[in-house]
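User: Structure please.
Assistant: Input sequence and predicted structure:
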Amino acid sequence: MEDYALRLDQVNKVFLSKVKGKGLRASLRSLARPDIRSVHAVRNLDLAVGRGELLAFIGPNGAGKSTTIKLITGILFPDSGKIDVLGLDPHRKRRELAFRIGTVFGQKSQLWFHLPPLDSFHLLGRVYDVPGRTLKERIDELVHVFEIEPLLHQPVRKLSLGERIRCEMAASLIHRPEILFLDEPTIGLDVVVRQRIRDLIRTMNREQGVTIFLTSHDVGDIEKLCRRAVVINGGEVVWDGTVKHLKYSLLNRRIIDLKSDGPIPLDIPGVRTIKATDYSAKLEVDLDTIRLEEAVQRIFASVSVQDINIANVPTEEIITRIYQDTEAGATPGTSSSSSSSSSSNSNSNSNSGSGAEPKGGRPCRA
């Protein structure tokens, strides 16, 4: 039997909301006969995350991400279904579970604002009942890994955002959690610091075996860190598969940037001009209509090509399409066909964080 860090089986959570119309009369009516409506925040949710996995859990605002995390961590009770986290029922064993999980929120701090990080580390060690000698060894180790020694004695309020996030991540590992929940860990960071934080997350996952549950709207975090992505919308899982499959196969198109030494008059079925100037063009190739190899051959036969670059459709657009498809009641990925398998070999510019070949995804109807 596979070893899971957490499993959710047919989990549901419904919130009741009182709806009131405008004006005094509506307010008085709502006191006598309130209009109660139910909001299905999580609907028949199935999810399994293996130990040591680095998972991206993504979705638009209001999709049910925060509710799911609160259910997993025991903050909320499910209305139905079963949740198992590290072999524990989170809402019955919440205190015990708290000693085995950690959290980092990009916009919220677990460090004391007016104290230096070192004091917060010692306080958190006491909270989690870490013995004195063990605590000192862990702090020394984390200070070395996260390179925060110059920051230890400065009040948190005087640290930059990037410095604070590094200290937050160190603080979250004081008690050696088995699962770490990261919510927008790189929000607001510049390019250099963002890359450093991603490197540290990979190090935690690889060297300490920490299961990472990442929620982020930053596509760079998803592509560069995670092998698997789960997309949630309307409280349901609408896509579950590898990031590589998400990027290469779901939206079956390629983008071609072309430069020539003259005008670029093209009339090729399945090839659409996105924008063009006298000597350059950006083209979109629909692989359901024409093979990429054939499209490139016909382009070379039509114009004198000086430079050409072939790329995937941006991952942001793919994820946006998933949201739109599920809101419209369509199954994500219906535009893909068997031609994607032949075309994916032609693109050598992958930035995916996975080294494994895609095993396919599990698109689910919303």
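Residues 335-360, 362-366 have pLDDT under 50 and may be disordered.
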